């Protein structure tokens, strides 16, 4: 398997996982559409950098949702 094929498989798996996470957390349509526009890239390094940034944002969203759900319990 060539490096190019390996890179492409990684990108496809990352896209599937990332979109699944975005969908399950109800992130706004604008962000989702922006992400899909970025997915058109075939550059492995560009896409992987984008994936890491977006996933970082998703983790922050998860923390905020968890915090928002926890705050009423603390008051």
Helix content: over 70%
CA radius of gyration:
15 Å
- Please tell me the overall pLDDT: 61
What is the count of β-strands? 0
- Contiguous uncertain segments of 5+ residues: none
Features:
about 80 residues; about 0% strand
Describe this entry's structure for a reader.
This protein is mainly alpha-helical. The chain has one domain. Helix content is 84%, strand content 0%. Helix 1 packs parallel to helix 3. The radius of gyration is 15 Å and the shape is elongated. The relative contact order is 0.12.
Provide a quick synopsis of the model.
With 75 residues, the protein is mainly alpha-helical. The protein has 3 helices and no strands.
List the helices and strands and how they pair.
Elements: H1 3-24, H2 29-38, H3 44-74
